[in-house]
Write a structure and sequence with these properties.
globular, mainly alpha
């Protein structure tokens, strides 16, 4: 499976190709993290039943031209980067981290994101950025 980019630049929302590449990276990341379809939708700020939207992203359609959606995708890739920095020799742990109970996060990190939306996503990102010294 191809690697997920560790670095990402701000995506030009008007560039469909960039948004399509971002959709591919995010859906591949969800596969690595083993998130359910409902969790994937919630993490992206979509309704829990947005399976058709997720399927379109998986099939190569670009992410919607939405600042919220693009910001969420950027934070997800930032979380991935921090996890790779924290666990450079244990890729499996880096991929399991979002779905494993974490006492400091009050449960599974993905549940924090689902419960608190964008603020939960920011909390997970800040925690990992602090832990990885970024």
């Amino acid at each position: 499976m191809p690697e997920i980019a560790d670095k990402h630049a701000a995506v030009d929302a008007s560039n469909r190709g960039a948004r399509a590449r971002l959709a591919a990276m995010v859906t591949r990341l969800f596969d690595h993290w083993r998130l359910s379809a409902a969790e994937q939708a919630e993490v992206l700020g979509l309704s829990p039943g947005s399976r058709s939207t997720l399927a379109r992203y998986r099939s190569g359609e670009p992410l919607a031209d939405s600042r919220d959606l693009l910001d969420r995708a950027g934070h997800l890739l930032g979380i991935h980067k921090s996890l790779r920095l924290l666990f450079p020799r244990d890729r499996d742990l880096a991929y399991r981290w979002m779905t494993q109970p974490n006492g400091r996060m009050g449960g599974r990190p993905v549940d924090l994101v689902v419960k608190h939306g964008f603020e939960g996503l920011l909390a997970v990102r800040r925690y990992l950025d602090f832990q990885s010294g970024q």
